Amino acid sequence: MARKTVFSIYISETENSKYWLGVLNELKNRGVKDILICSTDGLNGFSQAIAAVFPKTDIQKCIVHQLRNSLRFVSYKDRKEVAFDLKKVYQAPSEEAALLELEHFESEWNAKYPYISKSWRSNWDELSTFFKYPEEIRSLIYTTNPIESFNSSIRRVTKNKTCFPTQDSLLKIAYLAVENILKKWTMPIKNWPTILA
For the CA atoms of 118, 76, 72, 116, what is the dihedral angle to 10 degrees? Predict the structure, then answer.
């Protein structure tokens, strides 16, 4: 039996939590009962929008975005060390071990960069969601990079056009771009049989 891929394309001039609340409500109205996990990039209000429409959804903030934000104001000479110590936090085998690594990070770096651990602590509930799941699928959950790569592929097609006569013309180009992207997605997910089991 052939598998049919179904997708929806949403276009907006701006991205905010109100917009996403509308998208989520539309998905619910179209029959989506629940979402197991939602990986977000930290957009203000997005988590609340998800919780309002799909209250049982596990929300995972993107570790890569958190890492970038953490390193934004770190001096160049400390950047590799700070990144290495933060990597110990999100690559820990369990949430308890991650919290111990975060404590170690605080003792090492809080004097110089106190805002980093403060940010990790204040976002911990949504940064640590992936620890609830088996190690085999954590790398699929903790980052929004795959969807950002997907969006980047669509932007490559649309960015050279100075204007679109109608929103339908933009939708058609986006649709064709998605069809081409899906043709290239032939690599199976690493360890998929183990994950599926």
Answer: -10
Same domain, 118 and 159: no
Q: In which domain, by residue range, is 171 found?
A: 144-197
- Decide: pTM greater than 0.85: no
Together in a domain, 135 and 109: yes
Q: Is residue 118 part of a domain?
A: yes
The pLDDT of residue 6 is: 62
- pLDDT at residue 161, as a whole number: 72
Percentages helix, strand, coil for the chain (3-state, rounded to 5) are 60, 5, 35
Domain count, the chain: 2
Please check whether residues 154 and 111 belong to one and the same domain. Answer: no
CA 146/CA 149 separation, integer angstroms:
5
**pLDDT at 5 > cutoff 90:** no
Q: Please enumerate, as own/partner, the contacts of 81-89 that have beta carbons within 8 Å and a separation of 24 or more.
A: 82/109, 82/113, 82/116, 85/109, 86/116, 86/120, 89/120
